[in-house]
Target: Sugar ABC transporter
Amino acid sequence: MFDHMKAKALLRSRFTARSAATGLALLIAAGSAAADTTVKWLHLEIDPNYLAAWKKIADKYEATHPGVKIQMQFLENEAFKAKLPTLLQSNDAPDLFFSWGGGVLKQQLATGTLMDLTEAMKAKDGAWQKSYNPASINGLTFDGKIAAVPYKMGTVSFFYNKQMFAKAGVDAASIKSWDDYLAAVRKLKAAGIVPIAGGGGEKWPIHFYWSYLVMRDGGQKVFDAAKNGQGEGFNDPAIIKAGEQLAELGKLEPFQPGFLGATWPQALGVFGDGKAAMILGFENTAANQRTNSGDGKGLDPDNIGRFAFPAVSGGAGAVTDTLGGLNGWAVTKKAPPETLDFLAYLTNAENEREMAKAGMLIPVAIGAEDGVTNPLMHQAAEQLAHSTWHQNFFDQDLGPSVGRVVNDVSVAIVSGQMSPTDGTQQIQEAFEQDQL
Model:
């Protein structure tokens, strides 16, 4: 073993005081660099304005936390879904990643790939947990374990081109029922206008229609019974009726030509370019149509209106029942402790307020509500505030196996490739298989 005292003497004989000081500085710098922690943050956001807002938050955090680097990593929506399961099992697993919640998140927690956040969020009298809307925590909790840090809540609704509606003589305020909606589609077609921008290529955008119709026809009681294996399951008459109504919409050929191959960004572009009058989408659709439009500007904000998915005559569901996301940030089991500290910072009231002002989200952090200033986002926030039942996306809530069939069936029914009864039977069979 090399003698420590001899080494010191050798160093003193070879270097001047100045060079020794320089060497010490280099050693300290090297030690600091070795101690640096990189937090890998995986997301699927494409809006440059949103990314800039996140980058600003990350930069501020890094400035006050020397030695911590926040590395933002991106995967496109479909690639994210396809690659994430493998990525989580690899040495390149992210430390935190976007989650839609529901059955997929529950499954990820059950497999042991995620960090159970319960203890961290309940520490210090639950200060961290109490900083969020209680519904957001409850929606991300499974079997008493908190699986993700809440990020935002959202609801799916219709967005429309006011000028196109006016040209066709359609009054959005008068669309109260599903029959009213179909009448509006017919009017738009008669005026030579494509009624709806659809993203059938990715399938899940079409499942919004089927899901909402199930909610409006059957209400929470029917859907909860189906997903809990009770009664007639997904073969319930109300669910079959929802498929029949979706088929009725499909027969009107309401979507843009080639919609069956269109991605969601392409559908947003169709709407943003003024080539379709409506789109059923997320609360941030107005911002994302701009990003995906041909000129990068899209429709003028003043030309975009919004209305809730209409009621169904005789249905058990209410128009105040909402479908949408409860999104969070999941943390992988081997993530460094700094990940949780950064997440608490990212989602605190101050930062959520700034993100809300930028039109990025409807905040879940208590005290950030005043940040929702965008008129369309404010409407979505108001709708959520008065929601009588907020249901997570069906394809997320039911888990990946059943959710995939829901998406496939929705597209098959609306395109006339499958009957509503065959569709519900396929979903029921997938559900039963998933329970084995």
Observations:
- The CA atoms of residues 62 and 68 lie 6 Å apart.
- Residues 1-34 have pLDDT under 50 and may be disordered.
- The two ends are 61 Å apart (CA to CA).
- The first helix runs from residue 4 to 14.
